[in-house]
Structures are given as structure tokens and as C-alpha cells.
Specification:
mainly alpha, 2 domains, about 70% helix, disordered C terminus
């Protein structure tokens, strides 16, 4: 093989190696995003119509998240938020609608106290997805129920499930096991849903009593 042929072979080999390295980098970056965002990765990719646009959105979320000045909650703040949850849960028995409305606002205030922008719900989800992606599906479900609640369209059982989902969201945002375990088993490993205490079981387990489709009242009624 002459010199020109050898040079061509070397160039092709270098290009192949560079291509393999580029593919490996893309795969590694994709795995990092999947590991970081979990189910949120697939949701954003579907929402944006493809991987390239979805991954660009997730990387932009990481960039904007890095610009935030986040704060850890003080023990006093944690205890105050726990107390608010307990009060709302107790209120659920007599006024499920008002209880869910109060807890939805509680989550927004916890998010704001941590330093996240909390004025817009969609922006709140975007910022939370970077560090709290495992809790987003429950937060979305609970907030959707809260919106239907404000419109007078949610059933009592839907509001009961919203309280369970809000409880898991709050537990995740407070960053510790804020709600004590009632049994020795505890939650499954890596579970984002804190186990129900005896009081939770009494209030938040589904009722066996039938209800009308519009059994709840709007807050303030």
C-alpha cells in the first residue's frame, strides 16, 4: 500500500473513532438525563415531539436550576409545615374541599421557602423536576384534583387521593421522613410516598359510604 493509501486508512480510522466517541458521549448524556429526571424524561420528550427537543428542554431546566439560590429549611420551618399538614388533614373529615385547597397552597409556600420561583404552577414544576422529579407525578395528580375541586367538580374520593399525593409531595420537599411510620415495615426502598400513620389511615383511606358525583363544596361555601 502506497503512502496515500495509508494516509486515507488513518484518516478513516480517526473519523470512525471520533464517531464512536461522539455516539458514546450522546448515550452517556442521555443516560444522565434519564437517571436525573426519571419518568419526567419520557413525559417531556413526548410533549416536545422528540428526543432532541425534549433533551434540550431538560438541559435548559438544569441550567436555570443552577442559577437558583436554594435554601434548606430550618427545623422550625419543618415543624411548622408539619403542623399545617396535620391541621389540614384533621379538617378533611368535615370539609374535604377546604382541606385540599389549603394543602395546595401549603405546597406552594414550601416550594417558595426553599427558594424556587413559585408564582406559576408550570414554572414550579419545571424547576422542581431537576431535584424532585420522583414526586412530580403525585404533585401533578394532586394539583389537578385541586383545580377540579375549585371548580366544584371533584368527588370526595378524588380529594382523598389528592391528600395522599400531597402528603407524599410534602414529605419529599421537606427532605426528611416528616411523617412518622405507623408500622415496622415502613415504605418500600426508594419510595417517594411516605407510609400512612394511624391518623392518616383513619382520615385518608377510602370511605365505604357511597357519594354523589359532586359531593364536595367549594372552599368558602
Amino acid at each position: 500500500m502506497n503512502t496515500s493509501g495509508i494516509i486515507i486508512v488513518i484518516i478513516v480510522a480517526v473519523l470512525v473513532v471520533a464517531l464512536i466517541a461522539a455516539i458514546a458521549r450522546v448515550g452517556f448524556a442521555r443516560r444522565q438525563l434519564r437517571d436525573r429526571f426519571g419518568d419526567e424524561y419520557d413525559r417531556v420528550v413526548e410533549e416536545k415531539g422528540g428526543r432532541a427537543a425534549g433533551e434540550a428542554e431538560l438541559r435548559d431546566r438544569q441550567r436555570r436550576h443552577a442559577e437558583l439560590e436554594l435554601r434548606e429549611l430550618t427545623p422550625e420551618q419543618r415543624e411548622a409545615y408539619r403542623s399545617e399538614w396535620v391541621a389540614a388533614q384533621a379538617r378533611f373529615i368535615d370539609d374535604p374541599s377546604a382541606a385540599v385547597h389549603a394543602v395546595d397552597e401549603l405546597v406552594a409556600r414550601i416550594v417558595a421557602a426553599r427558594g424556587y420561583p413559585a408564582t406559576d404552577y408550570r414554572d414550579r414544576l419545571s424547576h422542581l423536576s431537576v431535584e424532585h422529579a420522583p414526586a412530580l407525578s403525585q404533585y401533578r395528580a394532586a394539583h389537578d384534583a385541586s383545580v377540579r375541586n375549585d371548580a366544584g367538580e371533584a368527588t370526595t374520593e378524588e380529594l382523598r387521593q389528592a391528600m395522599v399525593d400531597y402528603r407524599a409531595t410534602i414529605n419529599h420537599l421537606l427532605g426528611d421522613d416528616s411523617f412518622p411510620v405507623a408500622d415496622a415495615g415502613g415504605p418500600a426502598p426508594n419510595s417517594t410516598k411516605a407510609p400512612l400513620t394511624e391518623e392518616d389511615e383513619r382520615v385518608l383511606t377510602p370511605s365505604e359510604q357511597p357519594e354523589a358525583d359532586r359531593a364536595t363544596r367549594r372552599p368558602g361555601d
